[in-house]
Design goal:
- By secondary structure, the chain is α/β, with parallel strands linked by helices.
- It has one domain.
- Helices cover 34% and strands 12% of the residues.
- It has four helices and five strands.
- It has a three-stranded mixed β-sheet with strand order 2-4-3. A two-stranded parallel ribbon has the order 1-5.
- Helix 1 crosses helix 3 and helix 2 crosses helix 3.
- It starts with 7 loop residues before the first strand and ends in a 30-residue tail after the last helix.
């Protein structure tokens, strides 16, 4: 019997869940899971390391790498082939502190144990351009 899939912690649900070409009908769609979007957000937008991302999402670093690789392939497929990108589903749980920060503050806290969103730390993340 396979091991049950562990839920990945995400900070908030996306504001937009559909993206597509403006110049006509899309040739199919690509489904991007919410945990894949969270990996893209943490690694590419906030500049976290894979270990920091793993701490924030509550999974192993190797899991983050697999999720991130799958997300990049799906983004490339949607962009190159002109497909609609639909963000939905996946194996995730919302951060327990997301209600207090509306999905913005959790990922901006620097916890001594890594970026875990525990709500006890209030030091901001150092962005790449700030360093």
């Amino acid at each position: 019997m396979p091991r049950p899939k562990k839920c990945r912690r995400i900070c908030a649900l996306p504001r937009c869940s559909r993206f597509g070409p403006l110049d006509g009908a899309a040739e199919g769609s690509v489904a991007l899971a919410l945990e894949e979007l969270e990996a893209i957000r943490l690694l590419d937008l906030l500049g976290c390391t894979q270990e920091e991302c793993a701490g924030q999402m509550g999974v192993a670093r190797s899991t983050v790498q697999q999720v991130y690789d799958a997300a990049r392939r799906k983004l490339a497929l949607a962009l190159v082939e002109g497909r609609e990108l639909v963000i939905a589903g996946g194996s995730y749980e919302l951060c327990p502190h997301a209600a207090g920060c509306a999905g913005r503050d959790c990922a901006r806290r620097d916890c001594p144990r890594g970026r875990c969103g525990c709500g006890t730390c209030h030091r901001p993340i150092q962005y790449k351009e700030d360093v």
